[in-house]
TrEMBL record:
Organism: Chryseobacterium contaminans
Protein name per UniProt: Phosphoglycolate phosphatase
Keyword Protease: no
Keywords per UniProt: Hydrolase
Matching InterPro entries: HAD-like_hydrolase_domain, HAD-like_sf, HAD-SF_hydro_IA, HAD_sf
Cited Pfam families: Hydrolase (PF00702)
UniProt key word ATP-binding: no
GO-annotated molecular function: hydrolase activity
Amino acid sequence: MKTDIDIHNHCHFSFDLWLTLIKSHPEFKTKRVELFSSFFNVDKPIDEVAKTVKYYDDLCNTINEVTGGNIDTFEIYLMILGALNVDVKLLNKEKLNEFYVRSEELFLEYKPVIIFENIHDFFGEIKNQGKTINILSNTGFIKGKTMRKFLIHENLDQYIDFHIYSDEINCSKPNPLIFQEVKNNLKDQDLPLHQILHIGDNPVADYKGAADFGFSAHLLKH
């Protein structure tokens, strides 16, 4: 996979996370649905809960891409629970946060699978050439703070100069503001935009978003 990414003509590399570097653990989403159902006492069959979770996960991702904004994780929970006839007025932020903590524990137990082969060698090669790397990821159920914990656990954080997650700056790819944030975080503010390469799997959010902003862009196809 890495052989078709040219690291010689670029000085900075921006990577998407989901379906670019990693994918969900095969059991994680099932376990999360089970936790969702039991934690909030959802009185619906588990397959209906699973369908509802997936529907709102996909919908909110699409809304974020279309509007360039960022729907909060707790808002996604409330939409799902409302659709499952749970009385959301009885909930509060403390309860939602307690669920997030539990789901983060589950996420770190059923960790994502790294799909970008030889990633440590590839990142090491970039850094050995004196070049820089960032993560640029839209988030939904899993916040940026949790992704940071995962990347530290995988010893990948050592290669990453900075992280940008949509929940932390309240905008999502392909919004030009999120690519501007990449530019703002570079040590070399005079670096020409075309020497920044953004790599991702999404034709709109990653490829078109980066290219429209003026970055070089590489669309990964697994």
